[in-house]
Every structure is written in C-alpha cells, then in structure tokens.
Amino acid sequence: MRRLAACVVAVLSIAEDGRAQHPTEATPQPKSTPQDIAAGARIYGSQCAYCHGTRGEGGRGAVLARRRLLHAADDLAVFHLIAQGIPGTEMPGNPLSASEIWQMVAFIRTLGLVEQQPLTGNPARGEELYRTKGGCTRCHTLAGRGGALGPDLTEVGGRRSAAYLREALTNPEAAVPDGFLQVHLMTTNGRKITGVRLNEDAFSIQIRDLSDIFRSFWKSELAEFHRDAGRSPMPGYREAFTSAELDDVVAFLASQQGGL
Asked: Which domains, ranges and CATH numbers included, belong to the chain?
C-alpha cells in the first residue's frame, strides 16, 4: 500500500478533536447499514484498492473477495488486521478511527460475495512444471521445502491474484515485492558477488547469494556496493513456458492457500 503514506495526514485530521479512539481498541461492532458499506467502500478505494484491487481481486496485496480471509477468521480479526497490519509483510497498520474501520469491515465482507472467475489451468500439471521445467524450488519455499532466495510461496494464492502471478512469471521485474533488494558486491580482493539483501546497517551487510548461501560482510571489506532497486534475479518464463503451461503454473500457485 505505497499510497497509504500519502493519505496519513488527511486521515489524521479526522481525529483533531482528540476524541477518536486508538484503532487497536475495537468498539463493539455496530450493525452496518447501506450507508456504512458505502462509506467503507470510499475508504477502501483510497486506502486499500491500490494493493488489493478495486473489488478485492488482489494484486500486490491479498485476495479479499473470498468468504474466509487468510489471516482473519471473523470480523473482529479483520478489524485488528486493518488497524495493526501484519508484521513482516507489506501490509501496514492504519490510523483510521474505530468507526471507519468497522465501515471498512462491512464493505470487505461484501467482497466475499463476488463471484470469482475460474482458472483454466490444471494445478496438478502446474505443480509438475513448478518442480521440474521451471526449477522454482531452487529459490522458493513451498510448505517448508525449497530454497530461500525468493519469497515463500506457501500462501501465495491467498496473497496474490492470478493476474499478478502471471505477471510475476512473465515479467518478474514488474512485480518485485516491497523490501526485496538485489545487490552487487565486489570485495577488496576483487571477488564479485550478486545476491539478495537480508539485513544492512551502517557497518555491515548480510545477503543470500544466488547459490542460496548466506554471507556477511563488513562494509570496509567492499570495494564496490551497488543496490539494484526494482531488479530481480528471477528469470522470465514467457518463452520458457507455453501459454497452456503458464495457465497450469498460475493455477497451481493460486491454489496455494496455506492449508485453508
């Protein structure tokens, strides 16, 4: 939700009189009216649609057009998820008032009634392609198995839309997750290393190289250090897979719902 930061000042103005409750303190859930749902839709459109899609179809954010949300089994859980975000993910907390969050909850619940278009691919064939021709297990973890260079895909079907998954497969650099950073290093003895940044401070950097090996360097050991924002070591599969094979892999990834 990159646009969230731009809206924070406007949202905070709602609480200028100091009477708005802290968003983590949920008030009793009110009975929602059509007016509440409409208000929730307006807030959702400005705060959430950029990542989750205008109708909850997903994108950079999770698919919300489903009867059971991945991280929120009931309305109170949805309230706290909106207020607090999900630590370790791209989902931030939100400074809305309690009444506004309940309006958002009311609207989000209507998204689960939207009919979803079925996928044409075969998930079983997609799994085989994922593990063999695609070589995806070298970099991605699925249900605790695989490499750690790329994002964990265990719940990717609940976090990304089918359209987003297809774009990530065919044009990876158009769908680089927030916080993912490829780096190029050269040590003072001339050794060149490319990898993904795991942690960095003023004096050191820790990366996972393209062989999936963890490495740590003092910055004083580096002759060159380049941050390649928006770049990805993942190859594109537009030519490697046929159109039907892409359909199959997308269907397989979309089926990964974290056991739900």
From this structure: 4-111 (1.10.760.10), 123-173+234-254 (1.10.760.10), 182-228 (2.30.30)
- pLDDT bracket for residue 89 (50, 70, 90): confident
Q: How high is the pLDDT of residue 30? A: 85
- Among the listed residues 161, 135, 155, the one whose alpha carbon sits nearest the alpha carbon of residue 146: 135
34 HSE (CA, 13 A, CB side) = 0
For residue 177 the two structure tokens come to: 């997750």
User: Which helix or strand (DSSP H or E) is residue 7 part of?
Assistant: helix 4-12
Model-level pTM? 0.63
How many Å apart are CA 167 and CA 51, to the nearest integer?
A: 15
- 164/235 Cα distance (integer angstroms): 16
Token pair of 66 as six digits: 């489903």
Nearest CA to 253 out of 241, 68, 85 is that of: 241
Contact 146, 256 (CB under 8 A): no
* 119: Cα separation from own chain's centroid: 21
30 vs 239: CA distance, rounded Å: 53
Q: How does DSSP classify residue 201?
A: -
Nearest to 216 by CA among 187, 176, 182: 187
User: What's the pLDDT score for residue 11?
Assistant: 38
